[in-house]
Amino acid sequence: MTDLRKRTKSPAEQTEAEKYANKEAKKPTFSYRESPLTVLISTSLHIRAIYHIFVAILIMLLIDTVVYDLIERGKINVGLNVIANGFGDIGRGVRLWLFDLSIALAFYPALKIYGSSRMLLKNLPGLQRVWTGFGIIGLVSLETLLIAVPTWDLGRQHLAIASSAAVTCEMFRFVMKIHAVAISCIPRFHNEKIPLPTFKSYLYFLFAPTLVYRDEYPRTKKIRWEVVTFHILEVFAIIFYNSFLWERFILPYWSDYGKQPRIEAGTVVRGMFACVLPGVISFLCGFYCLLHAWLNAFAELLRFGDRLFYEDWWTTSQFSKYYRAWNLVVHSWLRDHIYKPIAPSAGKVLATFIVFFISSVAHEMVLALSFGFFYPVLLMEFGVLGLLLLPLTDAIGRRFPHTLNLLMWLSFFFGNGLLWSLYPMEYFARQNCPPSERDSFFMPKSWSCPEIILKPNWTFQNPFDIIH
Fold first, then answer.
1. Over the chain, what is the mean pLDDT?
2. Residues 231 and 294: beta-carbon distance below 8 Å
3. 312 to each of 284, 300, 403, how far by Cα in Å?
4. Is 243 in contact with 79 (CB distance < 8 Å)?
5. Rounded to the nearest 5 degrees, what angle is found at the Cα of 198, between the Cα atoms of 195 and 203?
6. Is residue 363 flagged as an active site residue?
7. What is the pLDDT of residues 22-77, one digit of tens each?
8. Structural contact between residues 366 and 165, judged by C-beta atoms closer than 8 angstroms
9. Does the CA dihedral 287-293-299-301 come out positive or negative?
10. Rounded to whole angstroms, how far apart are CA atoms 170 and 163?
11. Whole-model pTM?
12. CA distance 244 to 240
């Protein structure tokens, strides 16, 4: 009797094309998915009410500021100066972005030339190995050029904070994009039956809201322009919201920091706690702006069907799940191109450490080039404390999920309060303190200027003593 069942081929029997197809099938697939907040806001009246609460808070703070400015100053100033200063010299920022874009576009013809030349050498394995070495050197050189030129330019002359942040984020985005394409082409170089990416696919990937390369992605049938407009308006509203928080809550506490030679420790501590609430609001707004509104706007413009850019990180009780769910776009790239290649030989612990180190250094570079100084507060919070909390919260979070979720949110409050205090302190200390021979990009100035002192004759009274 003939066996009609389909027999699975062994790896030795499979062709290169079949091996590649099987390997691609095992990779995480893209599908038609909406962002979690899109689903929650559209299906839950409770979540929609929370969204409306944030909008109402913005409107009330705006009204409060307008009334205050009209009464005290006779004019209206609601954060527009902060936006103008933050995006200052935007033309220089655009030029740096165009440079990075030109390097990313030049990568494609270089890839085609490399692939065609390699096929010509298919019967000369020795020369193929040499050509592979040249290819690796060329890729590393392009990635280094993408990072080095903007870094040199921003280090030579400081650019406005928001413009610098945009340039540095785009710099890293282009590096990760071309690296992902190069890695995806490795099996194609070994078999001419598997074509290299077309320029159309490559160009689409450069602007698609993902860092994981595929020749094709799920595509929606049409662009919903009302969705694009709504998300773009949200982006502008959140930029205004953050600039408003900066002007309303940060500048009053820290803009004069360093003008006086001494400052009381109590004033510093009080200012830090005053920055906790605006810090966490800015943290939530930044997440919503970049990972929800901005990416969904681009996804809709490009008809990109998979919009799972993050998961419900706000409910987690483990830092490991938070780091995975917070930004699936970057996490997927780090997993595929850093963690998975390293883990089999280095082990999971070392691979995790390397991933955290690379990610924290990249984040710190964005802040250092944006502010114009190196002050590794985020590096310590994310790359050191966050890494140490991984095993602790993994063990305890499973047993006490609700308690650990509360503690995680407390850490978000305190962590963002410190970020919104220490970076402005250093920023304004460098502006207000007298120049010194010890001034350096890497040496914090706020540690020595101004001098932090205890309040003279300070005493503590028992708050429970109500008998006088």
1. 84
2. yes
3. 13, 21, 17
4. yes
5. 145
6. yes
7. 554 455 578 899 999 999 988 989 888 988 888 888 788 778 777 877 776 777 66
8. yes
9. negative
10. 11
11. 0.85
12. 6
